[in-house]
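Quick sanity check, Gephyrin: PROVISIONAL:
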Amino acid sequence: MNHLSQHHINTDGSINLPLGRALETYINSLPLLVNCKLKKQSRLYVNENIKAGLITLKCVEGAIDYIVWKTVQGQKKSTNRIDDIIELTNKGRERVAKIKQNIAQDLTVWRWVLFYDGNIGCERACGGLGECKQECSNFGLKNNLKNDFDMHKCAVRVITKVMLSNVKDPLPVQLIIQGIHRTSALAIPDAKSARIYLSLQTRDKIISARHGHRNTEVEITMKVLAPYNNTNETHLTHLHKTCKDLCTEQQQKD
C-alpha cells in the first residue's frame, strides 16, 4: 500500500493522515525535512486519556525498536513512537457517541510536537543564523540550549494532533507544519560521511534481521535495498541522500 496517497489537505493547510506507519512515512517524505533530525517534545494527553479509560495504545505491527517497563505503581509503559496506534475503549466509544450528539465535549487524546535540532546553520529564535547573538539568553549555554526540549535553534515545528471523536476515522491525525528553514547552508551532506536518521520501520527491519536472523550487514543492506532493485543508479544515489529508508553496511556500524 502506498502510504503517501493516504492523506487529505485541509483548507487551513493542515493535513489529515492515518495513524501508524503512514504517519511517519509522510513526515519523512516532506522536502522541508530532508536530512533533518527531528527531536521530540513530550507527547501530551495520551497517558491521561488511557488512565481515564477512554483509549488504549499499542505498537504498530512489526515494531521492535522500543523498550517496555513498569512504573512503581505497576503500570506498563513503553517508548513513545510516532507510529503508535490509538484505539477506543467501550468507555471511549460511549464518549464519542455523546460528542456526536453535542452532549459531551471533545477531547485531545494526542498532541506531539516534533522540531528540528537546528544543526545545519538554521535561523534561531534570537535571530542569529547558525549561532546565537551575543545578547541572546542562550548564548553562554552549552550547545546554546536550556534543555533537551529547547526549540531555540530552528523555527520548524511538526505538530501531530488527534481528537477523541476522530480516533476511528480513516485519517484521524491532524498534521500541522509551522515555520520555514532559513539557513546559512541547507546542503545535502556527502552520503559516505553523513550520519543517517533511519525511519522506525527500517530500524525495525534491521534489528529483526540482525538479532532474529543473525544477518550480516551486507545481507541486511540487501534486504533494505530489495524494494529498489529496479531503480537506476542516479535515482538510487539521490534516494540514499534524501530517504530515511536506505543505508549502507558501513552506516549500520556507525
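Posting the structure with no commentary besides this: Residues 125 and 135 are 12 Å apart (CA to CA).
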